[in-house]
């Protein structure tokens, strides 16, 4: 027998209260009588009410203790496990998150199978072992879980739905999928949920705390030791100052293996329909769990650039490829207004293709052509002082503004209560984790200090980075002083400055840039465009040969409003057509998997009823036991005991 609410056992202390009522009964006054022969019954009653007496066997006490014990057992929700019936509903949950695209360790050859393919095969094998009339429903995970098939007799329909299922490269909500599967059993007797997964869930902690009310069986696919994955986290381009028309690239790579590995980063230049031409390559050795960066120069002019990570026998192929587009040849100019200077920020801006123009808040602001050449302004701890100057204040209103606070040790600042980091999905914080980053003091924002934007980074419960727009101009605010943190010493800092500069510049890429698979894109189209559609140029990890480029076209939402990005990582062209079908415009879009899904995931440890953790061993058709509640029996016994107690009390047999 098992208990669904074992924590209710603490209510057994109520039995002590019942016993104390008999121990602490009222004591009567001593009374002199002529003879005790006629008062024997009164003497017995007086003895029964003497406090701190030894408990005696009384029917009424025993029945009350028994009733209280049964009531506590009922609150503990007792169940007994019994074998499942083969005609009960089975809900299959197919995990199709990014980690399921990893190749098994023993099958890293080009014809190897992914964990997702192994999960589909395992689901088919399980269905083959079941009786033909058993009802089966299939759920696929995703941003929102969906039921893809339900059948009680036609197994071919289920097989066809499984064959058409594809991995999902966006953010996967496994907890919602488990809740949906568990809810499908409501109103039915019995039933089981079977999850086919590798157990690598981004939301494993939330799922582990989920209370399930029906039996759960987990069938794992893939090996726990096949963690030998390298990922391209960031691929940025900037013009080569020494060679006009050429570019320099910076590639950030993370090693998720359990040992140090040597990677080769290759950059290919693509122009028109010419075959891919390798422009540069660089070897880099990265320790397990660490990051590494490689800088490559001399990239020939191209329509787009492709970065590829070798070796190819990697677990996940989709994160071994990244695409970049040439930036506008004219470098942005940023006016950095600072009292003491900021060397780390200036160097990071230069690496991002931004020319910093240093100035002091006590100097005269630029004007005329000099002011026209400034693209945006960085106020490094000088915003309050600049606002007091009429000339500086007018310049700040006409330019995009990046504020960096210098909080003082007074009431206008606060020390974060902890180191918890929360990031919002935003171009400024993409691919950033801020793990182990220390921020000592932060500026307290007033009611109007940040009403123009949203907090894209929160540190210790305090907004750390805000991004938004004021009068159509980008605005950014760091509520901490860079010199008071260890952020400039971390590999993420150049990436953060680059993405911040991109936000301040309003985007310097002539193409559509990069988007997460399946995201909604708010784009502007050609004035005469009648419709738009996607053309697949190349799928990530599919190779670099011209013969492997995909030509399948996918319909888009139309030429107005939001349009959905393709669901598979790779390189695509958005083609806009007129009323007669003529091509009006064509722009590239690089699609990647969701960055959160590429992070190392925690292990799944679900606390479900009768959970079974299998790795492919055991009989395929073996069914877990199902809980049968005993609550109704407990209620019946409580009523019987209460009736017996009333009968004892009514007849006066208290002793």
Number of strands: 35
The fraction of residues assigned to DSSP E strands is: 25-35%
Instruction: Give the CATH level 1 class of the largest domain.
Output: Alpha Beta
Under the CATH scheme, the architecture of the largest domain is: 3-Layer(aba) Sandwich
Distance between the termini: 35 Å
For the report, how would you describe the main beta sheet? 8 strands, mixed
The chain-level structural class is alpha/beta
Low-confidence stretches: 543-560, 607-623
- Helical run tally: 13
* Anisotropy-based shape: extended
Based on the structure, what is the oligomeric state of the protein chains? Answer: single chain
Helix content: 10-25%
Protein name: VWA domain-containing protein
Transmembrane segments: 6-24, 59-76
Keywords: Membrane, Transmembrane, Transmembrane helix
Domain VWFA: 88-276
Question: How does this model look, in words?
Answer:
The protein is 21% helix and 31% strand. β24 (462-470) and β25 form a beta hairpin. The two termini are 35 Å apart. By secondary structure, the protein is an alpha/beta fold. It folds into 5 domains: 2-75, no CATH class; 85-226 and 605-623, von Willebrand factor, type A domain (Rossmann fold, 3-Layer(aba) Sandwich), CATH 3.40.50; 230-313, Immunoglobulins (Immunoglobulin-like); 332-504, Rossmann fold (3-Layer(aba) Sandwich); 519-540 and 550-592.
């Amino acid at each position: 027998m098992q208990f669904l609410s074992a924590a209710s056992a603490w209510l057994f202390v109520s039995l002590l209260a019942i016993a104390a009522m008999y121990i602490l009964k009222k004591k009567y006054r001593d009374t002199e009588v002529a003879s005790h022969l006629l008062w024997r019954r009164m003497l017995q009653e007086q003895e029964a009410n003497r406090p701190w007496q030894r408990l005696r066997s009384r029917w009424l006490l025993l029945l009350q203790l028994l009733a209280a014990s049964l009531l506590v057992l009922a609150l503990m929700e007792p169940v007994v496990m019994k074998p499942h019936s083969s005609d009960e509903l089975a809900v299959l949950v197919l995990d199709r998150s990014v980690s399921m695209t990893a190749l098994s360790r023993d099958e890293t050859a080009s014809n190897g199978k992914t964990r997702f393919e192994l999960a589909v095969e395992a689901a088919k094998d399980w269905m083959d072992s079941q009786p033909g009339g058993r009802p089966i429903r299939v759920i696929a995970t995703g941003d929102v879980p969906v039921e893809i098939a339900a059948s009680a007799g036609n197994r071919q329909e289920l097989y066809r739905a499984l064959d058409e299922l594809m991995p999902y490269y966006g953010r996967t909500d496994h907890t919602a999928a488990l809740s949906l599967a568990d809810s499908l059993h409501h109103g039915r007797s019995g039933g089981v949920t079977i999850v086919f997964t590798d157990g690598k869930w981004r939301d494993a902690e939330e799922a582990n705390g989920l209370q399930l009310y029906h039996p759960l069986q987990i069938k794992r696919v893939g090996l726990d030791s096949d963690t030998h994955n390298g990922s391209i986290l960031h691929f940025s381009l900037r013009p080569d100052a020494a060679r006009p028309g050429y570019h320099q690239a910076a590639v950030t790579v993370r090693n998720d293996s359990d040992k140090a590995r040597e990677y080769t980063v290759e950059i290919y230049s693509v122009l028109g329909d010419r075959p891919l031409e390798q422009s540069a390559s660089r070897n880099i050795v990265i320790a397990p769990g660490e990051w590494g960066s490689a800088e490559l120069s001399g990239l020939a002019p191209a329509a787009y650039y492709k970065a590829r990570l070798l070796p190819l026998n990697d677990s996940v192929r989709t994160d071994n490829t990244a695409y970049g587009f040439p930036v506008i040849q004219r470098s942005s100019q940023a006016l950095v207004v600072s009292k003491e200077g900021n060397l780390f920020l200036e160097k990071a801006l230069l690496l991002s293709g931004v020319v910093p123009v240093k100035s002091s808040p006590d100097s005269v602001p630029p004007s005329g052509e000099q002011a026209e050449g400034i693209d945006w302004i960085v106020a490094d701890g000088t915003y309050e002082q600049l606002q007091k100057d009429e000339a500086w204040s007018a310049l700040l209103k006409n330019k995009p503004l990046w504020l960096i606070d210098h909080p003082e040790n007074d009431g206008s600042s606060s020390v974060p209560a902890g180191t918890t980091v929360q990031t919002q999905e935003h171009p400024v914080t993409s691919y950033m984790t801020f793990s182990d980053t220390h921020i000592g003091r932060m500026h307290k924002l007033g009611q109007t200090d940040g009403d123009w934007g949203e907090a894209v980074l929160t540190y210790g419960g305090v907004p750390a980075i805000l991004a938004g727009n004021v009068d159509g101009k980008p605005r950014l605010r760091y509520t901490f002083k860079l010199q008071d943190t260890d952020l400039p010493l971390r590999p993420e800092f150049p990436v953060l400055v680059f993405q911040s500069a991109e936000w301040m510049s309003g985007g310097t890429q002539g193409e559509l840039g990069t988007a997460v698979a399946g995201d909604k894109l708010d784009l502007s189209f050609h004035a005469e465009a009648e419709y738009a559609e996607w053309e697949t140029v190349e799928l990530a990890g599919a190779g670099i040969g011209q013969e492997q480029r995909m030509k399948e076209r996918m319909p888009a939402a139309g030429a107005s409003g939001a349009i959905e990005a393709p669901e598979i990582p790779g390189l695509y062209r958005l083609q806009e057509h007129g009323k007669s079908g003529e091509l009006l415009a064509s722009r590239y879009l690089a699609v990647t998997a969701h960055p959160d899904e590429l992070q190392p995931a925690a292990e799944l440890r679900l606390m479900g009823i009768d959970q079974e953790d299998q790795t492919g061993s055991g009989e395929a058709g073996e069914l877990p036991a199902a809980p049968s509640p005993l609550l109704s029996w407990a209620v019946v016994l409580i009523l019987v005991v209460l009736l017996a107690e009333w009968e004892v009390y009514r007849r006066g047999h208290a002793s």
